[in-house]
Design brief:
There is one protein chain. The protein has 277 residues and is an alpha+beta fold. The protein has 2 domains: 145 residues, Jelly Rolls (Sandwich), CATH 2.60.120.280; 106 residues, Homeodomain-like (Arc Repressor Mutant, subunit A), CATH 1.10.10. 44% of the residues lie in helices and 16% in strands. Helix 2 runs antiparallel to helix 3 and helix 7 runs antiparallel to helix 8.
């Protein structure tokens, strides 16, 4: 039996790996929802948490894996004060688009939750542990561990996907999230959502707080910002990114974009252009 293949050269790319324990007093429990240009692998070890990705909520248990691609909206929701121990791996993909297309070309909000078999789960966690302790000087060994982790992810996305999304999400809230995801650019205020679904502002905010740990205003704003980032990546002007994403006030857009990403939209766009050079 013969198997030949071409080993393509790799462009340098960024990888950051951590093993983190978030205690009840840790400020990270209040971390804002993520929208960023990297792929992210989260592995739960302990903690009563769930994950919001796009319009879906995933209940996770020890050993479960959450994978998100660039600009896929996501954040962790805490259900009690128990410690939250997890692995967190973030890496850039734009430098090697062909290598990582199994991640970047998946549909947003799909194939995010992986639960391996018990045997594979233990091996996968061992690889994650080894990567956190790997010696940067041993490049081949370090790369081998990282790509072994990716091989489990690639296989898991096909064979071990978990379908228990929205298991605790009320139908009314799911319908609201669907509506926001499809129409965020034309929604100007939370009042419009309240009136359309015949629900009071206080009830709407209570549901968002209970199930998503955030306000409906923040969710709507983040969806607009997410779209603005995508438009800037497609070389849209800052003005077009602003108004096509549903922001009515240009100055307000600049302010909240900078607050969210710690850079102005123009500097963000210029940094993307520099990446491509």
């Amino acid at each position: 039996m013969n198997n030949s293949f071409m080993m393509e050269s790799l462009n340098p790319f960024f990888v950051n790996v951590s093993k983190i324990n978030v205690t009840a007093s840790n400020a990270e429990r209040k971390t804002a929802p993520h929208i960023h240009e990297y792929c992210e692998i989260y592995v739960n070890l302990t903690g009563n948490v769930s994950f919001v990705i796009e319009k879906n909520i995933y209940s996770v248990k020890s050993g479960d894996i959450i994978i998100t691609k660039p600009y896929e909206y996501h954040h962790c929701v805490y259900h009690d004060d128990s410690d939250h121990l997890h692995f967190w791996i973030m890496f850039s993909v734009n430098e090697n688009p062909e290598l990582f297309k199994f991640l970047t070309e998946k549909k947003s909000g799909h194939r995010n939750h992986i639960r391996l078999s018990e045997e594979k789960e233990q091996k996968f966690i061992t690889h994650c542990e080894n990567l956190t302790k790997s010696n940067p000087e041993n490049r081949i060994s370090q790369m081998a561990i990282f790509f072994q982790i990716l091989s489990y992810i690639e296989e898991g996305m096909e064979k071990y996907k978990v379908s228990n999304t929205n298991v605790s999400l009320p139908k009314s809230l799911k319908n609201i999230l669907d509506y926001i995801n499809k129409n965020f650019a034309s929604i100007h205020s939370v009042n419009e959502i309240s009136e359309k679904f015949f629900i009071s502002i206080s009830t709407l905010e209570r549901h968002f707080k209970q199930y998503l740990s955030m306000t409906p205003k923040r969710y709507l704003e983040d969806k607009k910002l997410q779209n603005a980032c995508l438009l800037l990546r497609q070389n849209a002007s800052v003005t077009d990114a602003c108004f096509e994403s549903g922001f009515d006030d240009y100055s307000h857009f600049i302010t909240i974009f900078k607050k969210k990403f710690e850079v102005t939209p123009l500097k963000y766009k210029k940094s993307l252009m520099t990446e491509k050079l």
